[in-house]
Amino acid sequence: MTTAKDIMHTGATWIPAHETLDRAAQLMRDHKVGALPISAKGAQDRMIGILTDRDIVVGCVAMGHDPSRMTAGDLAQGTPRWIDSEAGVEMVLEEMQTHRIRRLPVVENKKLIGMISEADLAQHLTEEQIAGWAEKVYARG
């Protein structure tokens, strides 16, 4: 059985909730990623959300806010989703489809070990699996 750990990319980097959005953008650039898990203040391993490059643009810049004054925690919303490293690909797809998300942190022994993105799915799944995933994640309504 192919697992979440098999298809994820390693090296996911946390952003502390108190860090500014300009720093988050720099980390995304440096690590060549479009999303960072947000950690709770003082708790490196407790995820309170995921910050995306789109969040910075839409939730900060487009609203006229200063990214050097807004923090990652300011944009943390909802309940963060994640998947256990040993979960099968079917569970990965179900979690992403049900919650209409394009990035999914992978956790092992309560620690973040990687992230699954659209690019990871494209590299490891069949065309049929990708088409089904995209139809549900990108569906309107």
From TrEMBL:
<dbReference type="InterPro" id="IPR000644">
    <property type="entry name" value="CBS_dom"/>
</dbReference>
<feature type="domain" description="CBS">
    <location>
        <begin position="70"/>
        <end position="132"/>
    </location>
</feature>
<keyword id="KW-0129">CBS domain</keyword>
<feature type="domain" description="CBS">
    <location>
        <begin position="8"/>
        <end position="68"/>
    </location>
</feature>
<dbReference type="Pfam" id="PF00571">
    <property type="entry name" value="CBS"/>
</dbReference>
<dbReference type="InterPro" id="IPR046342">
    <property type="entry name" value="CBS_dom_sf"/>
</dbReference>
<dbReference type="InterPro" id="IPR051257">
    <property type="entry name" value="Diverse_CBS-Domain"/>
</dbReference>
<protein>
    <submittedName>
        <fullName>Hypoxic response protein 1</fullName>
    </submittedName>
</protein>
